[in-house]
Amino acid sequence: MRFCKGTICFNEYLFNSANDKKYRNYHHALSVISTNILMKASHLFIVTFSFLSTIISCTSTNDKGMEPDIYTGKLESYTLYQASDFAVNGIVVLKELKSGYTEIEVKITPTEKGLLHPGHVHFSSIDANGEIAVVLNPVDGETGISITELKEFEDGNAVLYSELINVDACIKIHLSSTPPDYHTILVGGNIGAALSKENPFGRLEISVCK
Any alpha helices (H) in 60-179, and if so which ranges? Predict the structure, then answer.
């Protein structure tokens, strides 16, 4: 369609088509830019979220950055002495949990992968045949470590860390859970109040468990 103003004529169809093409190109460019911005924003969100997750995870550890923040910082450690022909020794650490209870960690060395070594906390000192107070999780031969969270004795009486460290007791770790190796004690040692009356002893002075 043509229309004229005076001696000047215009082609309306061509005029509008040119404008429409420019508009479509401009709209397409805006769409591409918006898509790129959204993709970059999504990537930035993912990176930021991952970073914050790492920060939160780190704040759940103690100052050493090695242990979860479930401990009060109070602990007692005791030596576990060789108690058989096997040249094994170790240590037991009592850690107070924020709940007031105790984590008992036993570490012995050397050990052998594939073996499990049962252990107990007994009432009375190492040279006596005291009743079993606590059945510990067995020592894993692959790591040489046993970790047990203690809330109560075998008789059902609750016990807190502050009480446990004053109990007259000892710990014995066995070679195996079945006879005859059950009667072979790898390591043992006094803990709590029993430590104060401890005398140097040889393996023959460590009593066999019941």
Answer: 161-164
- Cα–Cα distance, 20 to 12 (Å, whole number): 12
Main-chain dihedrals φ then ψ at residue 168, nearest 5 degrees: -80, 100
Separation between Cα atoms, residue 94 and residue 101, nearest integer Å: 10
Q: For residue range 48-92, list pLDDT tens digits in order.
A: 545 445 544 444 444 555 567 999 999 999 999 999 999 999 999
Q: Where along the chain do its domains lie?
A: 2-59, 71-205
Measured CA to CA, the distance from residue 35 to residue 41 in angstroms comes to 10
> What is the per-residue pLDDT across 125-151, written as a single tens digit (0 to 9) for each?
998 889 999 999 999 999 999 999 999
Quick one: CATH architecture of 71-205? Sandwich (2.60)
| 3-state SS assignment for residue 75 | strand
